[in-house]
């Protein structure tokens, strides 16, 4: 087991946002986290990164390979964030800087976290761009984010997230802002990277259709709690919780396999 969340409770401004979340992520597995808007999916991901809103009260445990993250000093947590645990957001505009070249955004991470030199980080950056299937990787290295389509920008954001060889990747609605025609490609890429690099992936999405395409395990959240969790095929074909059944009933038949 790579990452274990146990009895995670988060209160923000007197409101119980997470009420005892249990979740485990494992190497080479995609864990899908589904649930309606406001159920606490994003807060769960942010808690792992130590990025909860200021003033949040947190109890419970989040261990990464046995090490408790919730009590790490800020400096240590900074090393974990972006190093061992990385995140991809819904809109690449939030993670990519519009004024910096793609190459700079990739190498800055590596130089800061891994202490690589200029040439070494450049080579690794181009290799990463190839890995996320950006055509003409060496060319792309010198370009700016706006020179790419939305789908390509999200691939670049994934490359930036992978720059420091994280063990855990949290992808929060990574395809929601994309055109449907490119969504499947980005999901296939995430799946492939998970397998190839042995990443433990938390795929946050309100869309069970997206989930059914790539997740190994699925957890369903409602009102700050995980109400159902298990292997994808079991949860999607034989849901036990009435809320999961409601979510599934709202999907077109063809979307769940
Ligand atoms: N900055 C904040 N301060 C206080 N409460 C917040 C803040 N951000 C979110 N919340 C509350 O936390 C709860 C969980 O929100 P969260 O964003 O985790 O839900 P979600 O399941 O990810 O929803 P969505 O699919 O819309 O992103 C919601 O009730 C929300 O109103």
Automatic annotation (TrEMBL):
Subcellular location: Cell membrane
Keyword list, A-Z: ATP-binding, Cell membrane, Membrane, Nucleotide-binding, Transport
Principal cellular location given in the protein's record: membrane
Record domain ABC transporter: where: 3-248
CDD domains: ABC_NikE_OppD_transporters
Native source species: Nonomuraea corallina
SUPFAM superfamilies xref list: P-loop containing nucleoside triphosphate hydrolases (SSF52540)
Record GO terms (molecular function): ATP binding
Pfam families according to UniProt: ABC_tran, oligo_HPY
Keyword Oxidoreductase on entry: no
Record membrane topology: Peripheral membrane protein
Protein name: ABC transporter ATP-binding protein
PROSITE patterns: ABC_TRANSPORTER_1, ABC_TRANSPORTER_2
Family: Belongs to the ABC transporter superfamily.
């Amino acid at each position: 087991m790579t990452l274990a969340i146990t009895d995670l409770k988060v209160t923000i401004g007197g409101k119980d946002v997470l009420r005892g979340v249990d979740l485990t992520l494992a190497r080479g597995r995609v864990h899908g986290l589904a649930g309606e808007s406001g159920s606490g999916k994003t807060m769960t991901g942010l808690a792992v990164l130590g990025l909860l809103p200021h003033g949040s009260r947190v109890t419970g445990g989040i261990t990464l390979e046995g090490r408790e993250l919730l009590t790490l000093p800020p400096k240590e947590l900074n090393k974990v964030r972006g190093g061992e645990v990385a995140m991809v957001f819904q809109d690449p505009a939030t993670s990519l800087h519009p004024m910096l070249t793609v190459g700079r955004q990739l190498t800055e991470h590596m130089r800061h976290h891994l202490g690589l030199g200029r040439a070494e980080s450049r080579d690794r950056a181009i290799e990463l761009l190839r890995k996320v299937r950006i055509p003409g990787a060496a060319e792309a290295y010198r370009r700016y984010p706006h020179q790419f389509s939305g789908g390509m920008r999200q691939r670049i954001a994934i490359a930036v997230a992978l720059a420091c060889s994280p063990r855990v990747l949290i992808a929060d609605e990574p395809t929601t802002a994309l055109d449907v025609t490119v969504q499947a490609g980005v999901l296939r890429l995430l799946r492939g990277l998970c397998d190839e690099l042995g990443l433990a992936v938390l795929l946050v999405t309100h869309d069970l259709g997206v989930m059914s395409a790539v997740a190994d395990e699925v957890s369903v959240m409602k009102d700050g709690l995980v109400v159902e969790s298990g292997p994808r095929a079991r949860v999607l074909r034989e849901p036990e919780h009435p809320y999961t059944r409601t979510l599934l009933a709202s999907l077109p038949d063809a979307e769940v396999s």
